[in-house]
Design a protein that fits this description.
The chain is of the alpha/beta class. It has 3 domains: about 15-100, no CATH class; about 180-370, 2-Layer Sandwich (Endonuclease, Chain A), CATH 3.30.870; about 380-545, Endonuclease Chain A (Endonuclease, Chain A). The chain has 21 helices and 23 strands. The strands form 4 sheets. The protein has a 12-stranded mixed beta sheet, with helices on both faces. A 7-stranded mixed beta sheet has the order 5-12-10-9-6-7-8, with helices on both faces. It has a two-stranded parallel ribbon with strand order 11-18. Helix 2 (about 50-70) packs antiparallel against helix 3 and helix 3 (about 75-85) runs antiparallel to helix 4 (about 90-100). The protein is globular and about 75 Å long.
Length: about 550
């Protein structure tokens, strides 16, 4: 295959408008028509057949009882309870169509099977280990698993061991050591390293992004991917269809397919009342040969590397793993590929070899790749943050573009600050979504009054999603500090313990704070009453946003 695969020329503004809005418009019209028919049937049925209205009311009552007795968070219960009480004729049916957080039963069962396969694969992959709690770090020992080769076991301090053990029990997540961790404080720095990693690919490349937008970043990436595919490297590409629809490159699927790249949309937009629009694939992954992996906040769009300026300076961060731990990221990638395509990828054939893993001492510390899925009834993302915060001894530093905590999350943050811990949070100074920005700012007051230090990144938009605790433990990935990321989206992150990248993350946090404006008690108390009233309303329904 020739490496000279030309990208389709960008569409002019009118053509893009017609194509994008034509697709979105048709879908919206069909969805609205279906909702209209549903509402009309209920209204007409209440007059023509009173039993239908009674059945609808009983359905809403049953839904309300289910919601109040479910495991879902109190904030989500409240956001649905109010509409059901106000308009019981319709909202019970709407909840069944749009309110479920866990996908369909078939998706839940299928995902559980895929997760089990991924865990089995990682336990047999080079470099995987188990941990146990001990007073001090000890040399690796070996545990006989009974049905496989001896599995390395590392004894580490109890606080860190408990966090890893939770992740191991929550999904197919396995700890790795001897992995090099490199932190990139800006998207443009990370993108250079990403291109270099793809250039060095020998066997395969996997990419998964929430947003893919036409522009310089995409064209540079496509040129390298097409050339590597022409050299015989297998390339897989996933993207969230709804997240990318507004600026997707012209003839995106056709260009990738012609270049020999396998491409699949996740949550493909189309007519029909479906839950999939609520469960978006927000993950960002690049994995090369199972030995190098990148994740963090950046998508494939020019603003992420500051080639264009829409909301001031775009602050984003990325982590690169090299060595055994990168396979944990690869395992996450192929769980989603199988979920989307139904294909059973031969993961063993894609493993790095024992020789490659043992080729050099890659790095220090421990890493665990994990994801958070809407196909269960708990939030691994929130639990991982909470476990880390509640074991803090000195300081908690958080960067997030959206600060929309539930009442439980606010309680955890405020109680930690009141107990004497230094809790610092950096949010954007210039918003990308004004409405969500107002919800973020509505949560400042109880935090600031409790002693949490809240900062706004003055130069522009803060898109990083990470937390560092005591300069010893850190999380970096795609998980925003909001309900949607914790409970509705597919997300991923890397948990790290005593890796060199953590010191770099702490240094970057201090440098970012120096460029930010601290929100004071006077600021939050000076908010006019009408804005506080608006904020209260927004917070009530924020889980549905």
């Amino acid at each position: 295959m020739s490496a000279e695969v030309e990208l389709t020329k960008p569409r002019d503004g009118l053509q893009r408008f017609l194509l994008v809005w034509g697709r979105v418009g048709i879908t919206a019209i069909v969805l609205l028509l279906q909702i209209f028919v549903l509402v009309a049937i209920l209204l007409w049925g209440r007059e023509a057949a009173p039993w239908l209205g009674t059945a609808s009311l009983l359905l809403s009552l049953g839904v309300l009882v289910f919601i109040l007795n479910s495991k879902m968070q109190i904030d989500y219960k409240l956001a649905w309870t109010v509409p059901i009480l106000v308009a019981p004729l319709f909202t019970g049916a709407f909840y069944l169509l749009f309110g479920s957080r866990t996908g369909t039963r078939r998706q839940v069962i299928r995902y559980a099977v895929i997760q089990q396969i991924a865990q089995t694969d990682q336990l047999s992959a080079p470099g995987a280990l188990r941990v146990r709690a001990g007073h001090h770090e000890q040399d690796i020992k070996h545990l006989e698993t009974g049905d496989s080769a001896p599995l390395p076991v590392l004894s580490i301090p109890a606080d860190a061991a408990r966090q890893i053990q939770y992740l191991e029990s929550a999904g197919p997540f396995v700890a790795y050591r001897d992995t090099e961790t490199t932190y990139y404080p800006l998207g443009e720095d990370a993108f250079v390293a990403m291109l270099e990693a793809i250039e060095d690919a020998k066997r395969w490349v996997g990419l998964e992004y929430f947003i893919v937008s036409d522009g310089k970043m995409w064209r540079q990436l496509f040129e390298v991917l097409a050339r590597k595919a022409a050299e015989g490297v297998d390339v897989w590409f996933m993207y969230d269809d709804l997240g990318s629809i507004w600026n997707l490159p012209p003839r995106f699927t056709r260009d990738l397919t012609r270049a020999g790249i396998r491409v699949k949309p996740v949550n493909k937009l189309g007519p029909g009342l479906t839950l999939r629009y609520n469960n978006r694939d927000h993950r960002k992954l690049l994995v090369v040969d199972g030995l190098v992996g990148f994740t963090g906040g950046i998508n494939i769009a020019d603003e992420y590397i500051n080639q264009i300026e829409q909301y001031g300076h775009w602050k984003d961060t990325t982590i690169r793993l090299r060595g055994p731990g990168a396979w944990g990221m690869a395992a996450l990638y192929f769980t989603m590929w199988r979920m989307v395509t139904g294909e059973q990828t031969d993961l063993v054939a894609l493993h790095p070899t024992e020789e490659q893993v043992a080729a050099q001492p890659w790095g220090k510390g421990l890493v665990v790749n994990y994801d958070d899925s809407p196909f269960d009834d708990h939030s691994t993302g929130w639990d991982a943050y909470r476990n880390m915060m509640t074991r803090a001894h000195d300081r908690i530093d958080l960067m997030t573009p959206y600060l929309i905590p539930t009442s439980e999350m606010t309680s955890v943050l405020t109680s930690l600050a009141q107990s004497g811990l230094r809790v610092r949070i950096i949010t954007p100074g210039i918003p990308d979504k004004r409405f969500v920005y107002e919800v973020t700012r509505s949560n400042y007051r109880p935090l600031v009054e409790a002693g949490v230090e809240v900062y706004e990144y003055t130069p522009g938009f803060m898109h990083a999603k990470q937390m560092v605790v005591d300069d010893e433990v850190a999380i970096i990935g795609t998980i925003n500090f909001d309900f949607r990321s914790f409970y509705l989206h597919q997300e991923n992150a890397v948990w790290m313990y005593r890796t060199p990248a953590i010191a770099d993350m702490s240094t970057d946090f201090e440098q970012t704070v120096a460029k930010s404006r601290r929100i004071t008690l006077a600021d939050v108390r000076a908010t006019p009453w009408w804005r506080r009233a608006l904020w209260t309303l927004l917070r009530t329904f924020s889980p549905l946003m």
